[in-house]
Specification:
This protein is an alpha/beta fold. The chain has a six-stranded mixed sheet with strand order 1-2-11-10-8-9, sandwiched between helices. Strands 4-3-5-6-7 form a five-stranded parallel sheet, sandwiched between helices. It is globular, with a radius of gyration of 25 Å.
């Protein structure tokens, strides 16, 4: 099990942080010509280069020692074996078993395999047309209604794997804002659309509001046959039956699978419908490859441990608060949003597992967009802003598919060149002398050079880690997700927090239940603060 910290991380890493803050990345590379070899690791078909992090051999050894002292290996083993490491909820954490974890108890593996075969068989039937619309025609479209982990994972995966999507077109509705449902459903034919309602408890307000709207939309076209166009991803069989969904179209998962870790379960049904059961199995196998690596590799060669320690170094040694994730892969456009939930919901905690306040700052603000688009928006802040932002750059060695023969290679060369150039610019910047020399070479006069040189100088010394994979296919996507899942867990162990609860999410839900009646009847504002009561009155007032 985990070792709850009794000493702040900053105390352990302070001497190394102070030494390195007095240097810069230019100097570190000048001092060590083998820096890439020393600070990059290849495993499981991935390469992680962290040589552009502001770190040296002594600091790295201190981080590895910290991981050992905080019991990372022991916590990992406890999780994989199914011990109840989610202490605040008294649960095991076994999403790894969904992808073939041989470490899990035999009974768990058996029930997982049985449910997986059920939902994959249904996916195959939808794809073949055996599970058909009320008219007997194959479904052309599938709408997944969920939110949070019941939406982000499948939506991200379907977009990422678009070249492999050869089944019905899959759409997603999440926001309780009616525009989401309206804009999605308006373009579809209800007579050829299957609706999946994804909610473990079948009580999630946003999901059920959207589900009722979708059912009404189906009923207009299908009448009493609307239920044949519905399926559910839920454990609440009573509620799904009351909604009119047959038991043979209800696919469940378990308390040991958290929402943000559920894409591997029946929550992944829309992915399986889109890409097919065989490719979904490859998706699981990719994640399992990282699980096996995480379980067996020494800490110094362990990719999730490496990323977790880099996260600790950034947050607790360098004092950074923001983490940009930039996939140089357009189809990974939703991957940063997926990681926002995975990371910020898991490690946005200020209480350790023993109930004491944390000893160190935890979590980082995660954001991102695909490169090269991001270079033309917020990268200016990353390069010359007054605060330093840590960055992960993801890039594939090869692209998947091309519109015109021969054109894909040119696109991908430009993409890779931009990815590498941005990490260079972040690390090494451009000195004033270099800026002056460049302007002089371009023919600028001395007065112009004096005026513009400060603006064209880049301090550099801004950290980044580069993650390289072969190509974005189902197996690789599984690897990337599992890699970051375990990275987040490693950080949580070192901070002494529980990555697997999310009590902060619940408060807003509870308060919304009290506000909702007041929006229908403004006399029911008892207990609301004056600001909320005033806003309720304003929002509920009839138009002037």
């Amino acid at each position: 099990m985990t070792t709850v910290p009794t000493r702040a991380i900053s105390d352990v890493l302070h001497p190394h942080a102070q030494r390195l803050k007095a240097s810069d990345l230019r100097a570190l590379f000048a001092q060590d010509s083998a820096r890439f070899d020393r600070f990059s690791v290849q495993a499981a078909g991935l390469l992680i280069d962290f040589s552009k992090e502001k770190i040296d051999a002594d600091a790295w050894q201190a981080l590895l020692a910290l991981a050992e002292a905080r019991g990372v290996a022991q916590a990992r083993d406890a999780q994989l074996a199914g011990e109840p490491i989610n202490a605040t909820e008294g649960r095991a954490v076994l999403h790894t078993a969904l992808r073939g974890g041989s470490w899990a108890p035999e009974q768990v593996r058996a029930e997982i395999d049985e449910e997986k075969q059920r939902f994959l068989a249904f996916a195959a039937r939808v794809r073949s047309g055996d599970a058909a619309s009320a008219s007997g025609e194959p479904f052309t479209d599938v709408v997944n209604i969920g939110i949070g982990g019941s939406d982000l994972g499948p939506a991200m995966a379907v977009r990422a794997l678009r070249p492999f999507c050869d089944g019905p077109t899959v759409h997603f509705i999440a926001n309780v804002d009616g525009a989401d449902a309206m804009d999605t459903l308006a373009a579809l034919d209800p007579k050829r659309t299957l609706v999946l309602v994804a909610s473990k408890t079948f009580t999630t307000l946003e999901t059920l509001t959207n589900a009722r709207t979708a059912r009404a939309w189906l009923e207009v076209a299908l009448g009493d046959a609307a239920g044949t166009h519905l399926a559910a991803l839920s454990t609440n069989r009573e509620a799904t039956a009351a909604f009119g969904i047959g038991a043979d179209r209800v696919f469940g998962f378990w308390d040991y699978v958290g929402g943000r870790y559920s894409v591997w379960s029946s929550i992944g049904l829309p992915v399986a419908i889109a890409i097919g059961p065989e490719r979904f199995e490859a998706f699981l196998q990719g994640a399992h490859a990282i699980d096996a690596h995480f379980a067996a590799a020494p800490l110094e060669e362990n990719l999730p441990v490496l990323l977790g320690l880099i996260g600790i170094w950034r947050r607790n040694a360098m004092g950074l608060t923001a983490h940009a994730v930039i996939p140089y892969e357009e189809r990974l456009a939703r991957f940063p949003a997926y990681l926002q939930q995975l990371d910020m919901e898991s490690n946005g905690k200020s209480t350790m597992t023993d109930g004491r306040p944390v000893l160190d700052p935890t979590g980082m603000i995660v954001f991102g967009e695909p490169g090269t688009n991001a270079q033309h928006s917020f990268f200016q802040l990353c390069h010359q802003g007054s605060d330093i932002i840590a960055m992960d750059v993801l890039v594939g060695r090869r692209s998947v598919g091309e519109l015109l023969p021969g054109r894909g290679a040119e696109h991908h060369r430009h993409l890779m060149a931009n990815a590498l150039a941005q990490t260079q610019a972040l690390a090494f910047g451009r000195t004033e002398e270099e800026a002056r020399a460049q302007m002089a070479a371009d023919g600028a006069d001395e007065q112009t050079i004096d005026r513009l040189a400060p603006h064209r100088t880049f301090a550099g010394d801004r950290p980044s880690t580069t993650l390289v994979y072969d190509q974005l296919d189902p197996e690789t996507l599984g690897k990337l997700i599992a890699l970051y899942e375990h990275k987040v867990f490693v950080e949580s162990v070192i901070w002494g927090i529980n990555a697997y609860d999310q009590w902060g999410v619940e408060l807003g839900k509870a308060l919304a239940k009290a506000v909702t009646p007041a929006l229908s009847d403004t006399t029911r504002t008892e207990g609301l603060d004056s600001s909320t009561a005033g806003l309720v009155a304003y929002l509920s007032a009839p138009d002037a």
